Amino acid sequence: MKNNIYILLIVVICVSSFAFISGCGKYAAQYSAPVILERHPTAGEGDIGTTETIWVKFSKSMDTSGYTINDMINKIKFASDNTAVVTFDAYITPEVVWSENDTKLSFLNIFFVAAPGNRIHIQSSKEAFQDVNGQYLTENADLWNFTLSGLNIENRFPPIVATVSNSSITHEVTFNNSLATYEYFMGPAHTAGTPEPMLPTIYESDDHKTITFEVTAWESGEAVVDITYEAQDIYGNVVTNGQLFKYNVTP
Description:
2 helices; mainly beta; Immunoglobulin-like; single chain
């Protein structure tokens, strides 16, 4: 009989201890500060497009009240090593979007004006983000820290250092963003021995990303064609003296 009583007491103590520990765990989880579990782009990621949608995922459901785009601007700050500028398209409304369980925050329709390699480093301001229990994300927490691709050429024909015959040739380049302005000219390597093209016919695609040049012929024989460009995309990214084409011409 005594053994049964001891066993019963042990069971009661164990159950009570488990309930206490579980309760403490739930209490600790409820009143612990939220942290960032995931983000896009990931920390230190490079070559990110200037129109990329960015997001962060928190460990807990967050208080999402008062999160208009203007409110959000007040909740974030740029770190001292930030070298790019955030802009908004006048024709597209920037958005702040939360997931259904209020753990994932996304920025849509924002644009980064920067040369390739420029950094976006955004941190949280003081008491900027709090969960549903009123616990704040740590001040100066890194929200995003990545580098940008800026404006660049994704594809070209002929490719760099190709060799083509001195005859009619169609050139084509495709940029990663739609262009606002575009100019082409012979680059610094142009010398008396480098051929001058006949005036080309130029076509632009409907989205202003792809430019086609139809060159009738070069005026001279074997040489190096070195063509650079200046361009600005619709988001304000500018390239000066970018490499458009560089290839060899044979008679």
